[in-house]
Specification:
heterodimer; A: about 325 residues; about 45% helix; elongated; B: about 675 residues; alpha/beta; eight-stranded mixed β-sheet; five-stranded mixed β-sheet; 13 helices; 30 strands
Chain lengths: ~325, ~675
């Protein structure tokens, strides 16, 4: 569960004010620039490092990558091995299902999720990383491959600006599709309310981690979804299934909160098991903090990787 | 306030619906969308007592709408008496109409009839007016309303019973239609509202219902049919038919019509003359009516009875028979010419009257006292005229044919006039101009098919002036206006004067098809003919065998003798049997029988009466009570239909519904606005 911070904490941008900005790109920029201005004091460094290695040439290999200078120096054939792209490939998976349209504030979960995705995209793009996008409801709606080139960010913003149109949240099909399309290893950021049965979530997430992707999961919830504050008993209509249910909030609150908590814990447990980072985000939480969460998870992940490498080298 | 369909008021229980829905806090407008119901479970609705004022108004409107609809469907009306009956409703006129026809002679029926009358007499109240009528061929008043009113109250029933005790069923037919309409006519005298005819009868199928179709029944009259239950018995009856006009040279048979009753179980019967052992076997299915040739009557039998055997009831098994007499008519014909001279008149006259098995006509040239009819075509000397006139004055009839201008003295002499002017008419020929078809002589021709006399040319005819002192009736005029055939009364007799002859030199009359019937009707009219009927039914009047002359002495089958004037018909044919008529030293026999319809004893349905428009009432109190309830219901329906309150209630319900829509809409808007403001 997310640590609930007051919205107007410590100079962070109030999401309500942020959401008043209509342009998504501008919103992302405000967050990232504000974040950077704070980052000068931050103890964290960038996380995207180039990696190069030399490997003795074996017969039959492509000679294109031979380091002729080294050969000139040492009379040995070495292949100069690069990472294909030195920068991070990041895929943003944004839930566009109708359940994301719920709001108790002036903006919906979807607005928040899209802004957050835009912020991440901007941030990563500014770092020179390649960013791709999958927006989905019960299946993948938009797909932009991870690139870092001029105008790509603009396309990404346009794709994000589309209003949610799908009905149900079904992670099965989109995650399978992502696994097919994102062949190269990278970072996958899943932004969704995850209001779907945990069921096969583990299998599909496991496919992604098994493919070598790094996974960060953000669960976006409306504060009222957590608090379940309604004045009177009334008919509740499911936005996705349009099913009606008569509910007295007083009577139903405790059990609802318990079930929701159990669900969150279930998802978190799955993530932990797969080595993925899980963050619960409420829509009244400043986006800067959410971004900070993301970076923290990256740092943790970096430490983890380093430890693992050390272990291997020993 | 009353209701036509009160069970619809149960619909007002539906008012529980709105009340219940208002108690359950589950208004449709309180609805919200939520991201997912995945973690929610339905909460059972909670009943909460409502106390908001506006919702109570809504509830009231909804309940009112349901109540208005329920009351509207129950079809309310304000009761008030619309019955035409006023204060006189309690007063009642009751006619007990008792059948005394021959079919009531069946075993036990009359006792039942009297018991039924007793029952009704016992039930009368002092305000009732009762009359008792019996009927067969015609209704007879046994106790009139006046009698009833005149008697003291405690004596009424007793006296009425005494009068009924002397009555028994007769032998007559049943004229039910006549009796019912006759009884109903008694109601027209005053305006009492309750008018009941109690018809006490066996309601046999032979009853005649003439006169009921289209009869205008007095207002409020009801007929209560008390059908007397008869034991089912096979019955057949017979009736000897009137022999048809005799034809020369044909031997006469006796024909009998036999009817088998509709409820009969037998089909085989025997016919035979009473006193004879000869029996003829006949077969009839139930309801069948057939005519048979009866066995030969014994030779020389003048009267007798044909007997039918084989059925269960014997009151109608005899049919009396009076043999038609052989009639001898002496006709004096003077001056008509030779027997075989086609130029003369007698040649044609004798061919008009051939001898038949029933009539022998003797043509004579000399007048005798017993001659019934005479045809004169000659001129007489004064002494002869006196003889003829004397004969005429005794009630005889003669036809005088004027043969020429010299016929004047004879005509004057016969009429007792000093002189009569007869002249030969000139011109080419004459036709008959106007004919008096009202006269019995021409009456048979009073039909467009037979009334054309224009084909008969009269080449020669004579003119004579009818003196003003003579009371003559001209039966036919020539087209020149002179009388052709004239009837002149001579004391008790009649003189017919024909102003032309039927010999070929005078006219075409003899060769015309009108000639034989014309002379036949003259003979019949003169009274010289034989009676045309010998078979009668009970209740029929037997025509007098002699039209003129001395009185006739009648003898009934029971030996009772009655003397009537000549020409007066005998009407006391109340018993079947052979009736004797003595006149002019001659005896004539007539047979009187029970009508064959009385043998058809199968009961008919009351529906047949209802179909003829008889206002049938009901037989017992329970049925009458049901009828009263039905009547009340009809009256209520009529009242409700006039008032039509349900329409206003439906309009009110619609208005309330509209008010409810407006109010609930306003409430919903108010709630939404409040929420928006919050």
């Amino acid at each position: 569960m997310p640590d609930v911070l007051p919205a107007k904490e410590a100079g962070f941008v109030d999401p309500k004010a942020l959401m008043a900005i209509r342009n998504l790109e501008l919103r992302a920029r405000v967050v990232v620039e504000g974040f950077w201005s704070g980052l000068h004091r931050s103890p964290y460094h960038g996380f995207s490092v180039e990696f190069t290695e030399y490997r003795p040439y074996s017969q039959g290999e492509d000679t294109r990558y031979l380091d002729w200078r080294l050969y000139a120096r040492s009379d040995r054939f070495y292949l100069k091995k690069f990472e294909d792209e030195t920068n991070l490939r990041c895929y943003l998976l944004v839930d566009h299902s109708r359940s994301m349209s719920y709001r108790s504030l002036t903006y919906s979960k979807s607005d928040y999720a899209r802004t957050f995705a835009a912020t991440l995209a901007w941030f990563l793009n500014a770092q020179g990383d390649a960013v791709g996008l999958f927006s989905f409801d019960e299946r993948v709606r938009d797909y932009l491959p991870a690139r870092h080139r001029h105008g790509h960010l603009r396309q990404l913003m346009l794709a994000l600006e589309r209003e949610p149109a799908g009905r149900a949240t079904n992670l099965t099909e989109p995650l399978r599709r992502v696994a097919e399309l994102a062949r190269k290893r990278g970072l996958i950021v899943l932004i969704s309310d995850l209001l779907a049965p945990v069921g096969e979530l583990e299998n599909h997430l496991a496919r992604l981690t098994a493919a070598g992707h790094e996974l960060v999961v953000f669960q976006v919830l409306d504060p009222n979804e957590l608090a379940f504050n309604f004045p009177t008993a009334m008919l509740f209509q499911d936005v996705e299934s349009e099913k009606d249910l008569y509910i007295d909030p007083e009577a139903a609150r405790a059990s609802y909160q318990r079930r929701l908590r159990e669900h969150g814990e279930g998802v978190e447990a799955v993530c932990r098991k797969l080595g993925a980072a899980f963050h619960g985000v409420l829509t009244d939480r400043p986006l800067d903090l959410a971004l900070l969460d993301f970076l923290r998870s990256r740092v943790r992940r970096g430490k983890l990787v380093r430890r693992r490498q050390q272990r291997v080298s020993k | 306030m009353n209701f036509l369909s009160p069970w619809f008021l149960l619909g007002s229980l539906a008012v529980a619906g709105p009340i219940l829905f208002h108690l359950i806090r589950r208004a449709a407008r309180e609805r919200t969308t939520f991201s997912s119901l995945l973690f929610l479970r339905a909460t059972p609705p909670k009943a909460v007592r409502r106390s908001k004022l506006e919702h109570i108004w809504l509830l009231l409107l909804r309940s009112l709408c349901v109540l208005l609809l329920a009351v509207g469907f129950a079809r309310p009306f304000f009761a008030h008496d619309i019955s035409p009956r006023g204060a006189a409703a309690q007063e009642r006129r009751l006619i007990l109409l008792v059948d005394t026809s021959a079919s009531m002679r069946r075993e036990g029926l009359w006792d039942k009839a009297r018991a039924t009358v007793d029952r009704y007499l016992d039930k009368t109240t002092p305000s009732d007016q009762v009359a008792i009528l019996t009927f067969d061929q015609q209704p007879r008043t046994l106790v009139s309303f006046a009698d009833w009113s005149a008697w003291s109250q405690d004596q009424r029933a007793v006296l009425a019973r005494q009068r009924l005790a002397v009555v028994a069923p007769g032998w007559m037919g049943t004229q039910l239609g006549l009796a019912l309409s006759g009884a109903a006519e008694l109601f027209r005298e005053n305006s009492v509202a309750r008018r009941e005819i109690v018809l006490i009868t066996d309601l046999q199928e032979g009853a005649k219902l003439d006169g009921l179709q289209g009869y205008q029944w007095p207002a409020g009259a009801r007929v209560i049919v008390e059908r007397l239950p008869a034991k089912q018995q096979s019955n057949a009856g017979l009736e000897i038919l009137e022999p048809p006009a005799a034809i020369a040279g044909v031997e006469e048979d006796v024909h009998v019509r036999v009817a088998n009753s509709g409820d009969s179980r037998k089909e085989k019967f025997h016919l035979g003359w009473k006193g004879s052992s000869e029996r003829m076997e006949i077969y009839l299915t139930p309801t069948q009516l057939r005519t048979f040739t009866a066995p030969k009557p014994p030779v020389g039998m003048k009267s007798g009875a044909l007997e039918l055997t084989g059925d269960d009831l014997d009151y109608d098994n005899l049919s009396y028979y009076a043999a038609p007499e052989i009639q001898h008519v002496r006709m004096c014909c003077d001056g008509l010419g030779a027997t075989n001279d086609p130029a003369g008149m007698f040649y044609y006259l004798q061919r008009v009257f051939p001898a038949t098995p029933r009539r022998q006509i003797e043509f004579a040239s000399q007048l005798e006292r017993q001659d019934a009819f005479a045809v004169i075509a000659t001129n007489f000397a004064p002494p002869e005229i006196a003889v003829w006139r004397d004969w005429l004055e005794k009630g005889k009839t003669a036809l005088l044919v004027l043969t020429g201008a010299d016929s004047g003295p004879t005509l004057a002499g016969l009429l007792g006039l000093p002189e009569a002017q007869v002249t030969e008419a000139g011109g080419e020929y004459a036709l008959l101009g106007s004919i008096d078809f009202q006269h019995p002589i021409f009456a048979p021709f009073d039909d467009p098919r037979f009334s054309d006399f224009s084909q008969i040319h009269f080449w020669k005819h004579r003119r004579w002036e009818i003196p003003a002192s003579v009371k003559a009736r001209v039966l036919a005029h020539f087209d020149d206006g002179s009388p052709a055939l004239t009837q002149i009364p001579v004391r008790e007799g009649n003189l017919l004067v024909l102003a032309s002859g039927w010999n070929p030199a005078d006219s075409q009359l003899a060769v015309s098809s009108k000639f034989p019937p014309l002379l036949e009707t003259m003979l019949d009219w003169s009274g010289a003919g034989a009676p045309s009927r010998y078979q009668f039914r009970t209740g029929d009047a037997i025509p007098s065998p002699v039209a003129i002359g001395a009185s006739v002495r009648w003898q009934k089958p029971d030996g009772k003798q009655i003397t009537l004037a000549a020409g007066a018909p005998f009407a006391e044919t109340d018993t079947p049997g052979i009736y004797h008529a003595f006149a002019e030293e001659r005896e004539r026999l007539f047979a009187v029988n029970i009508p064959l319809e009385e043998s058809r004893t199968a009961p008919i349905s009351q529906d047949d009466l209802a179909r003829l428009g008889v206002p049938l009432g009901l037989e017992n109190e329970q049925a009458a009570a049901i009828a009263r309830v039905h009547q009340q219901h009809l009256q209520d329906a009529e009242l409700e239909n006039r008032q039509k309150l349900w329409r206003w209630l439906i309009v009110a319900a619609l208005a309330v519904t509209f008010a409810e829509i407006v109010l609930s809409g306003w409430l919903a808007r108010r709630v939404t606005t409040t929420e928006a403001m919050l």
